[in-house]
Amino acid sequence: VAGAVAGAAAAGWLYVRHQKERRQRSRRLRDLRALALGQGDFQLRDTAGTARSKADFLGRWVLLYFGFTHCPDVCPEELEKLSRAVELLERDPALPPVQPLFVTVDPERDDEAALARYLRDFHPRLVGLTGTPEQVRAAAAAFRVYVSAGPRDADGDYVVDHSVLTFLVDPDGLFRDCYSRSRTAEEVARSVRGHMDTYEPLPL
Amino acid sequence: AAGMAAPTMEERKACWGARDEFWQCLDSHGDDAAKCEKLRRAFESRCPQQWVKHFDKRRDFLKYKKKLETEGFHPPEAAGKS
What positions does the entry give for Cu cation binding (chain A) (predicted)? Predict the structure, then answer.
């Protein structure tokens, strides 16, 4: 009899602890949600000239890359990789679609038309964003992306030095991961899939 | 928006191809640029000047990196001896 009582007490205690952990996780997730809406936000324009902010992309997984169209090699390579990662994920019909996003770090030259021309060569659903220099600066800062335009040459041409990272943002607008130049498309797709598997929507 | 349009995909690939040919020539002539003048000119004509500078720096970096990997790091002698 003593054993049965001890067993019941233990089960009771475990249940209470489980409930407490659930409440704590719930509270933490609510705090994260409040943070997410404030952090990593942007006020930019897509290639149709429509204003877009992070709120427009909530409910979707986003893979976001900062670059510029006059980029010698890194940006086309990273965009190829990004496009391929999205394609790999698209092969699994059970997975939600991923939204590829490109934000320019060179708003002076990369207007809507320049972005549309450039992004045509990559994934068909890739959305390009530009804005005023202030808006772009704020977006880069929100993602802690380093941006530094180099000196202009005689033709007025220049390159922009910038952090090379692809960010994964979840449907709640929270950062989940970031991928450097060394990660392959397959690795990125695998990582995104892993995040999707463990994702729990934040409580409303 | 200022100046020229960004290179298209075709133009990028033409530039990278010219760069690769030039670099292959340098590789097979022990980096003797004098032996690869024609390819150098082709490279410069196919790529924006800013990209030529960028790729020149990249090649220097890749060579330096290779040197570190094969020879190891030797700190400069100038760091005073006791």
Answer: 71, 75, 162
